[in-house]
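I am writing to request your help with a piece of structural work I have in hand. I am sending you one protein, given as its amino acid sequence and as whole-number tokens for its backbone shapes. Kindly check, if you would, that the fold set down in the tokens agrees with what the sequence suggests. You will find the record immediately after this paragraph:
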Amino acid sequence: MPVKSCHNGKGKRGWNPTDLAWAAGLLEGEGCFHTTLDRPRISVNMTDEDVLLRLQKVLGCGRLSGPHTYGLGHKPVWRYDLSRQDQVYAVTAAVYSQLGERRRAKARELILLYGSKPAREPNKPNVRLICATCGVEFSRYASQVRPGNVYCSQSCAGTAVGGLSPCR
């Protein structure tokens, strides 16, 4: 019986157990279960575009980008990225039992993160922050902000440590 899944592009929902086992093997060997700005993600980087196209087709979700080049003597690299919270959870839960110990620990972190945070609308941050230096409200998704920062820009962070002038 198929597992509840992302939309597979054929008007059906559900994963074929054989395809799901193949995807689990690929994610175990080449995948990365991680968070970016407290958002769960699954990504795979490799030089074989056809393998990532199959992964995208099998799972029915995710985005493929590339080729990315990293200089002379390096093959072009393709990237599969899954970042929609509900889809990351569905894929992680579906492949969890087929992962090794180390990947299972990372997958468990994503599952717990999904359960502890409400989904946010795309392009709408779920948290607003106040700059510790100038008092301006800013989004944690601003281009100059990194997780853990409490400053709205690099210049405000510099001021806090005795460097540049404050922003405004």
Remarks:
- The first strand starts at residue 3 and ends at 7.
- The mean pLDDT is 74.
- The CA atoms of residues 46 and 139 lie 32 Å apart.
